[in-house]
Amino acid sequence: MDGVLRLEHMTIVVVDDDRSSRESLKEMLESEGARVVAAADAEEGVEAVLSMAPDAIVCDLDLPAMDGFYLIQRLRDDEIRSNRVPAVAIAITGHTDDAYRLRSIGEGFQHFMTKPAQPDRLVALLAETAAAHKYASAVQGM
């Protein structure tokens, strides 16, 4: 890291049932300046997102009980009903096949990454999308 906090002023919800993955993502994103809330399952993730309207969501697709597809469907439905700018959503999974990639984009995730997530790639992706999300939120608020 070069001293520049690339995710400063961003709020990110991380949803992953694997404690080690969740904590490592949280620490890595916080080291880049983000405010991070970590959730262990889809319901916790939905609650966190609805209560804080984050800039981005990083979500594992393979969650217990209700998966990441359920989470994104719930969130996108709520964003439509409440006329909110959609949070940037990144799906992360151990699955490498195109079916998962296509389904995740079709369900409402903007980006797809395989595990283990490459820290530099994830941070760069979040930094790139942060400005667009802030702009869209500002325009909608006019």
General description of the model:
This protein has 5 helices and 5 strands; from the N terminus they run E-H-E-H-E-H-E-H-E-H. It has 142 residues and is α/β, with parallel strands linked by helices. Strands 2-1-3-4-5 form a 5-stranded parallel sheet, with helices on both faces. Strand 3, helix 3 and strand 4 form a beta-alpha-beta unit. Helix 2 (42-52) packs parallel to helix 3 (68-81). It is globular. Residues 11-130 form the Response regulatory domain. It comes from Trinickia fusca. Keywords: Phosphoprotein.
Describe the SSE topology.
Blueprint: E1 11-15, H1 19-31, E2 35-39, H2 42-52, E3 56-60, H3 68-81, E4 88-93, H4 98-107, E5 111-114, H5 119-140
Parallel strand pairs: 1-2, 1-3, 3-4, 4-5
Which CATH-level-2 architecture?
Answer: 3-Layer(aba) Sandwich
The amount of helix comes to 40-55%
**C-alpha end-to-end distance:** 36 Å
Name the average pLDDT. 90
Query: In the residues, how many domains can be counted?
Result: 1
pLDDT < 50 stretches: none
| CATH topology annotation | Rossmann fold
Radius of gyration: 14 Å
Order of helices and strands: EHEHEHEHEH
Q: Strands across the major sheet, in which order?
A: 2-1-3-4-5
Query: Helix tally?
Result: 5
Number of strands: 5
Sheet with the most strands, sense and barrel status: 5 strands, parallel
Beta-strand percent range: 15-25%
What is the name of the CATH class?
Alpha Beta
Shape: globular
For this structure, what is the CATH homologous superfamily?
Response regulator
Which class do the helix and strand fractions yield?
alpha/beta
Keywords: Phosphoprotein
Modified residues (4-aspartylphosphate): 60
Domain Response regulatory: 11-130
Protein name: Response regulator
